[in-house]
Batch of 4 targets.
Target 1
Amino acid sequence: MLADVSYLEPSHPPATQLRMQLERQRAAFLAHPMPGLDERLQALEALRHLLDLNQQALAAAVSEDFGNRSVDETLLAELMPSLHGIRYTRRRLRGWMKPSRRAVGMAFQPATARWCTSRSAWSASSCPGTTRCSSPSPHWSARWRPATG
């Protein structure tokens, strides 16, 4: 069975608007791909604040979409989990961004590796003078320094 996707042609206004919105989001991400801890916490706080301010409007919109859904049900099933998820993330974000150790295969022993979430880069070392780092770019690259000593 083939689906009819003629309504998704670029000339259709909603598809064009969606494409433009996705392009704006991509440009914004590429302009600042790895926000720091403070920026992430501020964004989560802004999201929490918007959800708090617009609880009744969101519940009314969901009620209208679902044909008179209970406002209390929407608050309990939709908004409370979102607010709890934001609070959970805010409390643990600092620890999630800390570098963590990763296992290295036997063939590469006595190397060590760690994952730096905040920089989105791997760092591996087999001896004090050898380091490999991958950059967070579309073209993953590695840089090796010869061991000294």
Target 2
Amino acid sequence: MSNIVVQTWDEKKFASCRDEWTRLLENSRSDQLFMSWEWQFTWWQMFAKKNQMQLRLYAAVDANNTLVGIAPLYLSTSYTKKIIPTRRLQFIGNCWRDRATMPTELLDFMVAKEQSQQVIRAIFAHLRASNEWDELILTNLRKDSETYEIARTEQTLPGCYLRHAEEYDSYFLDTTGDFEQYLAGLGKSTRLRLFNRRKILEASGRVNFRSLTDNDEAFDLLNQLHAMRWGKPVFLCERLRFNVELAALLVDRGALRFSVLCVDSSPISIQYNYNINNHVYNIQAGFDPSFHKKLALGYLHFGYEIEQAFNDETLAYDFLAGQGKNTPYKQRLTDTALAIVDLQIVRKLPLKLLLRTYDGLRKGGYLQTQGFTQAAPIFLVNSLFSLPYIINKARNIKCKTPDAASNM
């Protein structure tokens, strides 16, 4: 019998547990930035109230009352197909397929290394005993994690339908080797953009770097240069406040770094990074695309940062998930990636029927069959939900028609 007890912490405890949380994080395999108290609590402060999220912060303790696990979750209500109320339990850090927040990667249950599997099973047992959720969404979960393996291979939540809602890669570069060897292994075009065209940049003026210490100035510059590339600022409103608050918390640990590439005195590119335990995370970047038609400033700035990472004590440079505007630049800069999954564990019967039908159609190849677009089978699945509408209309009850297609 397990000696692990799972408790429920409230918001007051969440606010005061920084030291306990950090000690556990350091003794876990969880990501040291995204699973940090600073990231998680700041995210909760910025986005919870506005989005009507209910905290479900579960803490696992052993027989000695030592903290050995944390499951940072919250409960909210969404409407599948706009008519099925669904009580969704998910990780703090994302609002899956719903309102825009600050996206968070590499999430998991945070558990002590020496008791990891036992604690994960205890958390799942606690979730199994709860009747307040209809689906559990484990977003941005590493496929090599113990949480994923236990959820996939063991009957931790019997009667539920488990599916891979989305899969993608998170890219990083091992920087413990030699920079010259790294360059030699790149494609010719990538090497040209990343390194060889520095001479064109250097012919344009005096190249220098600034590390901004004024966070307000730094985020203003990031938004300005990002808008030049993408047509809009990257951080506004709650997203901006989140990053400002997070930066203020992590600057005390020496983790925050704004790298500003300048020619003469003019900033032309900026990177917003964190360095946690010699692991660099590239959160965002921006540059002036009109500076020189032959230069890809984003690549060049990465080249300088990557070279520095190889030459100092940095162990890894993390590009994270996502794609570039025009090219898949991350795949060109590294061939190393973590496989990530959004794991959807469904308990509610109507939703299980809907998703099993959709997945069956997709697996059977109907989404690719000649004469069927992807929207066509989804339209067929929608017919499962047309009966309530018909009945309501017959009773003269106002009811919106379900959409013909949606993102499953």
Target 3
Amino acid sequence: MLSAQEKLFVDAFQKKLVDEPDARVLNVPLINQFILFGHEVIKNNYDNRGPILTVSNNIKRKCAYILYLKLDNDELNKDAVDVIWALRKFEAQNRQLDSYLLYLERKREPKDKFYQPKRKQFMKLGLIQALQDMLDDKLDLLTISMPPGTGKSTLSRFFMTGVIGWFPDEYNLFFSHSDGITRKYYDDALRIVTDDVEYAWGEIFTGLEVNHQNAKAQEFNVGKDKIFNSLQCSTRGSNNAGQVRASKFLLVDDMIAKIEEALNKNTLAKLWDVYSTDARQRKTVDANKKPCKEIHIATRWSVHDIIGRLQTIYGDELADRKSVV
């Protein structure tokens, strides 16, 4: 809960920046002060994010209204655009996933952007909210079942690059059925984190950079050196016992390599054993002693697959801590 003084400041910013002024007036210096204030409040207590984000969203709506009016005022229009981006960056730095995904691709050509064209559909499906709930510790288990080519795996890579920046002291594991899948995941995630021309990751997470990478092992680290790297990638049957661990997120993507496996119950039973005795055993706890979270992504061909079993086993036990998309 906000302190009495913090609440007074939040109300004052709302009044001075949103409620009182003419709809066509932007107080940019005061907005910059609000951003600094917001960072400090959230740093002191992440749970106090709500009121800060409400004011931030209200300011963005005002900027959008100014642009909607198409006023003959180039300076005001430019200020409105700049403020929207500044607030998205502020929100992105404070674990707001939607703003992170938008700001991350700020530099990209419209035709090359992944998230913005798909944003409305992802929102409609509840996918962004479910991932946000994972970040906000409202969920421990998330299963995502979508057809091929819908962007679910790419979205998971974007999400994981945010996790690496928001939790630089933690380590995460991506697990899949083949080296080709994990190789692409590693390469794309590393490119997002290191390519300052194409992506704005470095603008969001100032002071963080890759300090170790191992292309052969498909892992890299940001922030301080850790016993395990920020992102590690592994496949079923890789025989890497003791070499990989996950403290924050275990992300399992399509353990089934082909439809023939999905139609064979014996094979599905073996894949469950691989998951339960290999991937799941890599989970530890994070810096706050909270158990590692799991995200499962798949194009599903059988109700007897890993996601199906998880939903059957944990459906009642984790009713308030799991989500199905």
Target 4
Amino acid sequence: MQQNKNILIINDMPGYGKVALAAMLPILSHMGHNIYNLPTALVSNTLDYGKFTILDTTDYMKKSIAVWKELGFSFDCITTGFLASAEQVDIIRNAYRLTDAPGLVIHEICEGPHQWHGENLAVHLGQLIDSYEEIKTNQEVFHG
């Protein structure tokens, strides 16, 4: 019998679309895992429509990680996806510190050149990928 894991999902929550948190939460929960979710953004719809609006949740993320540290929460697995700001890279680094070593870290590679506020969203993902070397010492890291 599989032991239930504490899984932290760091990803966006779409208002419309079967992706990111909207897809991952029910599946992993149904499998019996303890799910913690940390939305990086609320997104009106999937980005492939060409028009969308995004609410950046960076401040909420900082506060949530601080509370979880105080409560002693830890994670067996962290999965990340869409990042709404470069600042969220540091927040994710703090989340890694709550991972039981050796932890499993899964990073979703976002497709396509999407622009938001004049920035290429892939830049934020690139910054996160660049930071893997310094944080993955005791973790298995998968890029999907």
